[in-house]
Design brief:
five-stranded mixed sheet; alpha+beta; binds calcium ion; about 170 residues; Gamma-B Crystallin, domain 1
């Protein structure tokens, strides 16, 4: 009898164990979804919010909707300033930076991005847009010895900061 009770209890214990992992699973459903291997994320420079999707098409569709929410101004509201990729040659997960304007060539960093934790130490290739040059930094807050500027599509950012960038400056 004791043996049967013990066996009956096992599934409950197993369920408890499963329940303990549910918060992580739940977080994967929605805006707080962490960037997985093939996630495509939009990053809003104004809010610092990241929204990730399973395909580039979904990510672009979401960006259009958010642009509408900001007055429908893709022309003057949301501008793609840079796209960062997990893998070389613009492959793997992507991180697209949406800002409010073009970069100015004034010898200053116009836009500063602290990469979310799930994008730290991942960037391997980059595409600059909107007249921006991309600088990569090994520490948050544009700290450490930066590399760049990457002025054109760069299929491999190179050894100095490959898989090491934690913040990004756009100038
Ligand atoms: Ca990488």
């Amino acid at each position: 009898m004791r043996h049967r009770t013990l066996r009956a209890g096992l599934p409950i214990a197993a369920m408890s164990l499963l329940a303990a992992t549910v918060p992580g699973i739940a977080a994967a459903d929605g805006a707080a979804r962490p960037a997985g291997p093939d996630q495509h994320c939009n990053f809003d420079v104004r809010s610092g919010e990241q929204h990730c999707f399973g395909s580039l098409d979904e990510a672009e569709a979401d960006a259009r909707v958010r642009g509408s929410a900001h007055g429908g101004a893709t022309a003057q509201g949301d501008i793609i300033q840079a796209t960062l990729f997990d893998e070389e040659n613009f492959a793997g997960a992507s991180f697209t930076v949406y800002g409010t304007g073009m970069c100015e060539k004034n010898d200053k960093v116009d836009y500063q991005i602290d990469l979310p934790d799930d994008w730290k130490n991942r960037v391997s290739s980059v595409q600059p847009w909107a007249d921006c040059w991309i600088w990569l930094y090994p520490e948050p807050g544009l700290g450490g010895d930066r590399d760049g500027p990457f002025k054109e599509n760069t299929g491999a950012v190179g050894g100095a900061l490959n898989d090491r960038a934690q913040s990004v400056g756009l100038s």
